[in-house]
Amino acid sequence: MSRREFEAAAEAVVLALGLSRAKDLAGLLARGRSRERALTELATPGIGEAVVRLYDILQTESIPTAEAAAYVRGYAAAMLRARNAVQVRTVWSGPSTPAVPVRATAQVLVEVINEARVELLAMTYAARPYPALTRALTEAAARGVKTHVVVETLAGARGLLSGQEPADAFASVPGMRLWHWERDSAGHAHSRQHAKLAVADRRVLFLGSANLTESAARRNIEAGVLVNGGEAPRRAAEHIVELQRLGVLRPFPP
Predict the structure, then answer these.
(1) Rounded CA separation 205/227 (Å)
(2) Rounded distance, CA 145 to CA 176, Å?
(3) Which residues of the chain are modeled with pLDDT < 50?
């Protein structure tokens, strides 16, 4: 055995247990609990081998359990930091280029909705019924996700949108709250609600040029970014909520 093997075993047990149970193991090690006690108290399927290997190395190398506890806590902290780190990736619709792999808009939109467990906020200019999107939104509603979508209106678009109201694309989604920009005639009569974004639980943000339509998600050339973690998703969500609170955004239909 070697110090490197001990460190690898400590890292492996954290990966096997996950953050919460790894902290429990660190507590057991800090109190000098035995391997049998750890296996009994953790009682998580599939982790036995990793726990046994760590304890075997501690015994073989005469490593104090308090030191092992510190290593486990350190690896757990590193895992948490990695999980919270900001990741920014480009997202595209339209023709692909095999030499430059990128995420597809249609896939990412559904993934962002699927990420939501508490809150989903979205904004779009145009919207049309899109089965994959409708299905993901309906499943989110079934999970108890509070979904708010800000749409442009035919009146607000002043002839630049035609057909049904964009809000009609979400008519079959239960519990969804729809909003629109209530413009004042003095300063914003010719303005548009042109933002296109989706925010899941204030930690995942998709921001780009694509409307919530199948043509934008699959056929047009559209570009965007997917942001995981950091301040941007939270601040985007807070801005939308503040616009709602101030009455700039109002429920649709009025």
Answers:
(1) 5
(2) 9
(3) none
CA-to-CA distance for 210 and 195, rounded, in angstroms? 9
Query: What letter would DSSP give residue 129?
Result: -
Considering Cα of 180, then 184, then 190, then 196, what sign does the dihedral take?
Answer: negative
Q: Provide the residue ranges of all domains of the chain, joining segments of one domain with +.
A: 3-83, 87-251
CATH hierarchy code of domain 87-251: 3.30.870.10
In this structure, how many other beta carbons lie within 10 angstroms of the beta carbon of residue 253?
9
CA distances from 136 to 87, 120, 133, 143, 157 (A): 23, 12, 5, 11, 27
| pLDDT one-digit tens code per residue, 138-151 | 999 999 899 999 99
Cut 0.70: pTM above it: no
Listed in sequence order, the residues at least 6 apart from 216 whose beta carbon sits closer than 8 Å to its beta carbon are 93, 105, 126, 209, 210, 222
CA distances (Å), 111 to each of 49, 84, 208, 212, in order? 33, 18, 15, 14
Cβ-in-10-Å burial (0-12, 13-18, 19+) of 24 comes to middle
In 3D space, the residue among 186, 182, 113 whose CA is nearest the CA of residue 143 turns out to be 113
Taking only the tens place, the pLDDT of each residue in 155-164 is 988 888 998 9
Largest CA distance in the chain: 79
